[in-house]
C-alpha cells in the first residue's frame, strides 16, 4: 500500500484544527499501510526445507536438473542442494537429491542419473540386482542398497505384492548428456540413524544424510 500525498494548497491561511486533522489522517494512512505488509503469503508444497533454511520458496521447479543454488536470491540451506554427487568410470554421474522418511515407516531416495560419457550407452545390468524375480521386471535400480554402519544393517529396495521393485524401472539407452530422474524406496532405518551409505554397483559409495 502506498501513501499518496496531495499537493499543498496555496496561501498560508490554514487553521490549527485543519492542520491537526490532516496530520491525523496521514498517520492513520501510514499505520494501515504498515499493518497490511506483515502477513506472509502461504508457502506452496509440503516438503520441509533443510535445517537452517530461510528460503520462502518450494523445491526446484519440474524438470530442473541444474547445479545447486536454486533461484537467485536464495539464502543458505537451499532445498535444491544435492546430498551427494558421484561419478563412475563407466561415464555415468549420479546425484542423490533427497532421502526422506515418511509416517508409514519408509525411506524414499530420489535423484538424477546423467550420461557424461560423450556417447550413447546402456545402464549397467548390475544396477538391476541379482534376484531372479527382480530381473523379470527388466532394467531397474533394484541393485541399489543402503548400509547403516551404526546399526550394522543393509537395506534392500522394497517389493510390491507382485514382486516388482519399488524403484525406477525400464532403464534404456541414454544419449550423451541425457539425464534421468529416479527414485528408490526402502524400509526406514531407525530415527537415531542420521546417515547411510548408498551402494550402486560399479559406482563409488556415497554417504547421504537422512531427513
UniProtKB/TrEMBL annotation:
Assigned keywords, A-Z: Signal
Residues spanning the signal sequence: 1-34
Region (Disordered): 35-86
Keyword Signal recorded: yes
Top-level taxon of origin: Bacteria
Signal as UniProt keyword: yes
Protein name listed in UniProt: DUF3426 domain-containing protein
Species the sequence originates in: Streptomyces qinzhouensis
Organism classification: Bacteria, Bacillati, Actinomycetota, Actinomycetes, Kitasatosporales
Amino acid at each position: 500500500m502506498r501513501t499518496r500525498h496531495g499537493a499543498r494548497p496555496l496561501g498560508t491561511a490554514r487553521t490549527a484544527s485543519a492542520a491537526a486533522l490532516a496530520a491525523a489522517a496521514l498517520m492513520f494512512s501510514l499505520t494501515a499501510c504498515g499493518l497490511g505488509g506483515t502477513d506472509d503469503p502461504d508457502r506452496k508444497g509440503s516438503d520441509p526445507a533443510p535445517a537452517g533454511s530461510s528460503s520462502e520458496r518450494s523445491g526446484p521447479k519440474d524438470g530442473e536438473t541444474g547445479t545447486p543454488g536454486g533461484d537467485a536470491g536464495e539464502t543458505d540451506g537451499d532445498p535444491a542442494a544435492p546430498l551427494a554427487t558421484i561419478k563412475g568410470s563407466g561415464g555415468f554421474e549420479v546425484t542423490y537429491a533427497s532421502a526422506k522418511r515418511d509416517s508409514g515407516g519408509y525411506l524414499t531416495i530420489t535423484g538424477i542419473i546423467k550420461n557424461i560419457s560423450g556417447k550413447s550407452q546402456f545402464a549397467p545390468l548390475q544396477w538391476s540386482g541379482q534376484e531372479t524375480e527382480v530381473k523379470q521386471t527388466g532394467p531397474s535400480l533394484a541393485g541399489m542398497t543402503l548400509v547403516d554402519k551404526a546399526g550394522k544393517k543393509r537395506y534392500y529396495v522394497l517389493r510390491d505384492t507382485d514382486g516388482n521393485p519399488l524403484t525406477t524401472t525400464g532403464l534404456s539407452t541414454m544419449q550423451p548428456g541425457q539425464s534421468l530422474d529416479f527414485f528408490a524406496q526402502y524400509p526406514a532405518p531407525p530415527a537415531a540413524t542420521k546417515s547411510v551409505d548408498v551402494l550402486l554397483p560399479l559406482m563409488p559409495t556415497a554417504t547421504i544424510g537422512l531427513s
